[in-house]
């Protein structure tokens, strides 16, 4: 993910220069930095202290997200942190509090779907009343294979968290309850199906997450209203006839499916950071997604519907 961000910033985003890269895998950091004329530095502290570094992208493992974001805030530097903002609501709440104490917004959280052309068109249609009053939202989120480190709780906290951010963004309503179920009783409990209540039950939403769907990376969303429905339009696909089958190829992973979104996200972030600010999902919005995810994990573990207080 970090390598992709470096490449996109260097090749597709005007007005920005990658000057420094840090990773605990030193040789990897040196290779990535060399490709864009940057230098590899020995620590995050060294990177943050460098006066030539005006803003920071965090694409390191989840447990480092909150500590590194807090360090960026302490340094007064705009930061784009990949989701989730922290491991659990306590960590993300600490980031929200630190940013509020600073008195200005510096944190952008990498919920890139907000920048996807299809999702943006979907949201505009919904917000403009194109389908009447929203009553149902159906979401599908499938991967070809789970990450080797995937956990049952992570299906909610690391994968479903995208939908937990998208749903309030689409509808303008907070998630007020969640129930997560799975047909698996042991091992990686995948797939999972969540039923969410938004706005106290004014809207119901379903989210299917299936990490081991095998056939590819597939994200879908349909909004059902009192006056019609609107579905997420996938990016243009090429029909391929091969090995006795014909049809559109399914992207292999999220990077291919959301390539446009990542470029748009980074471009918007660079523009905001150049003015000393932030854009996209805020720390508070990311914290709210973490709160819902924690309730979802509780539901997965207990088998009960869990109310969400935000």
Automatic annotation (TrEMBL):
InterPro entries in alphabetical order: Gfo/Idh/MocA-like_OxRdtase_N, GFO_IDH_MocA-like_dom, NAD(P)-bd_dom_sf
Keyword Transport listed: no
Listed Gene3D superfamilies: Dihydrodipicolinate Reductase, domain 2, NAD(P)-binding Rossmann-like Domain
Alphabetically ordered keywords of this record: NAD, Oxidoreductase
Gfo/Idh/MocA-like oxidoreductase N-terminal domain segment(s): 1-111
Highest rank taxon of the organism: Bacteria
Domain GFO/IDH/MocA-like oxidoreductase residue range list: 119-230
Family recorded in the similarity comment: Belongs to the Gfo/Idh/MocA family.
Protein name per UniProt: Inositol 2-dehydrogenase
Organism expressing this protein natively: Georgenia wutianyii
């Amino acid at each position: 993910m970090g390598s992709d961000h470096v490449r996109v910033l260097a090749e597709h985003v005007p007005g920005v220069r990658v000057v420094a890269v840090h990773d605990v895998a030193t040789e990897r950091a040196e290779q990535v930095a060399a490709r864009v004329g940057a230098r590899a530095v020995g620590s995050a502290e060294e990177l943050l202290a460098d006066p030539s570094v005006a803003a920071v992208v965090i694409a390191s493992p989840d447990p480092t997200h909150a500590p590194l974001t807090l360090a960026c805030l302490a340094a007064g530097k705009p930061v784009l942190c990949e989701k989730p903002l922290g491991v659990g609501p306590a960590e993300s709440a600490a980031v929200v509090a630190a940013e509020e104490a600073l008195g200005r917004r510096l944190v952008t959280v990498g919920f890139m779907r907000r920048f996807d052309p299809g999702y943006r068109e979907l949201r505009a249609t919904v917000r403009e009343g194109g389908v009447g009053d929203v009553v149902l939202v159906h979401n599908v989120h499938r991967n070809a294979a789970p990450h080797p480190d995937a956990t049952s709780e992570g299906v909610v906290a690391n994968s479903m968290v995208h939908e937990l951010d998208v749903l309030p963004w689409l509808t303008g309503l907070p998630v007020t309850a969640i129930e997560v179920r799975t047909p698996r009783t042991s091992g990686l409990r995948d797939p999972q199906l969540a039923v969410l209540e938004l706005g106290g039950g004014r809207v119901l939403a379903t989210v299917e997450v299936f990490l081991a769907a095998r056939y590819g990376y597939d994200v879908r969303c349909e909004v059902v209203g009192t006056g019609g429905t609107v579905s997420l339009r996938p990016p243009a696909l090429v029909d391929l006839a091969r090995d006795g089958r014909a049809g559109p190829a399914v992207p292999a992973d999220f990077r291919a499916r959301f390539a446009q979104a990542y470029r748009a996200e980074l471009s918007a972030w660079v523009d905001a950071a150049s003015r000393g600010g932030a854009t996209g999902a805020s720390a508070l919005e990311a914290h709210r997604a973490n709160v819902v995810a924690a309730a979802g994990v509780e539901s997965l573990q207990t088998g009960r519907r869990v109310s969400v207080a935000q």
